[in-house]
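Aim 2, interim progress. The first record below pairs a target sequence with its structure tokens.
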Amino acid sequence: MHKPTNRRFVLILISGLALILVTSYISLTNGTFDIGIGDVIRTLLRIQPQPDHDLVIFEFRLPRIVIALLVGAGLGMAGAVIQSITRNGLADPGILGINSGAGAAMVIFLFFYQGQIRSDGWLSILAMPLFGLMGGLIAAILIYIFSWKNGRLESQRLLLTGIAIGSGLSAVSLYLTLKMNPGDFEMAAVWNMGSIYNANWKYIVSTLPWLVILIPLIASKSYILDLFQLDEDSQISVGVASEKEKAMLLLGSIGIVSACVSVSGGIGFVGLMAPHIARRLVGHAHRHMLPVCSVVGALLVTMSDYIGKTVFTPSELPIGVVIAIIGVPYFIFLLYRAKGRTNS
């Protein structure tokens, strides 16, 4: 009974990884300066390297692709965890205000250290995820406080509270951004819009440890996430320390989101769409869904980044805007479907 499901999971995972490779190849070879596959291979293998190819591949395109993959994978998995914890299919790190909390904390950090922090300096790059974590935690705590009623977390209150708090924190970020000097304003604008145009290897180094530690930790809790779909009494009857596990998983998700926001800004809707797509492909079992969520999220961000930087040439559309163009109609569709189920 499980073998067809496992075969389907493996087939979908391989297909998703293949699509990521194709998208990465297209993004690596196409652009204002086109590079042939032969030149790419020779550059990567260091066979008669040319300075112009080294500059384009290693300084601009490859870091951008790697950051897109890391951010997409992280946001996809974090979205799946948050939807499971809240038992709300409309939950998402961006919609619930966690992105805004992380972004606001980093904008505040930049505001009080204007002119002293450089976007390519190790201090700012390593400090950003930590400040993002604090901001995300504060936002999550506020959301939990205002969404708790009669001893439990209400899904509708959670969604409305998250949107309200996220909007408020975004307003704070915008106000402080407008008060900054031009150099810091440019840095802050990146997080407000959601963009990876200034991706570099230092950003990858600062983000990778968070994802390497937290993603396997969350994946190891797949069985617990499955049990969260049961009611509270059933969870207790099988020996699950529900609140403790939820706190650990939520903290891990906020850590992932904070690391992603620190290098890409507030990219929304990835954590909303990836879990729904993954469930349609491999079902609700989290041992299958979580890896597929990461692959779908990575594919969404990579494709959106390529669209944003090529379709509107010579201008570049921020990746957050491209994903929002896709995500807003999808969110409306989910709201409409949820309303239909409620009425029926």
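The second target in this work package is listed in the same format:
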Amino acid sequence: MSALSLAVRDSTTMLRRNLLHARRYPSLTLNLLLTPVMLLLLFVYIFGDTMSAGMGAGADRDAYVAYLVPGLILMTIGSTTIGTAVSVSNDMSEGVIARFRTMAIHRGSVLIGHVIGSVLQSVLSVVFVGVVAVAIGFRSTDATALEWLAAFGLLVLFATALTWIAVGMGLISPNAEAASNNALPLIFLPLISSTFVPIDAMPGWFQPIAEYQPFTPAIETLRGLLLGTEIGHNGWLALVWCLALTVLGYFWSKSVFDRDPR
């Protein structure tokens, strides 16, 4: 069997293992998924009228729903990948990885299985949040088929990038609690991005913090694709962030994983 065939076979096995774990223990995924859903309902039904008033003349709650949903979709991806960090940390601390190291399997298949499984869970989580968003009034009538395809590609790329970062966080964490805490920036960063309000509405000193981070260009790109608004330079910035985080996360995770097991 060639090295490529071995890698594909073992990665598929590890993917199946991780999906079975997610099916048997859904509570973590559900808990993380509830955060963006609750924020969506809170900001639409409690703060919707007030927040929409700050978007300009003629804006109403429906306009704010359209503005809010793209950011919360990407926040959903960040929330889901926290479960990946916890899962990887559990494998490391419980000795599962040490046992895998003694078996005749492709060395990188363990991490690849985690990454692919997490990306699939992220896509399913986004679909769930999207259904909730449509139920409360979100519509994307101006997006073409090509823009929908580009939006899906962006979501997959962003999920892959954050997942590799989460894998690295899980590998360096001594236990599940530490992994969850280390991965909190994946939920915190969307809160200080353009998810809830335009950057122009923020204080001048805070605008660079919200602008120069990976979530804001990705949110603005997704918002433009779904709503037909201008994307500008955000598309390229989002792509660069996705590729940079993927490469960084991959080599970081590989470096930590190749060390002697703790």
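The mean pLDDT is 85. This observation will shape the mutagenesis plan for the next reporting period.
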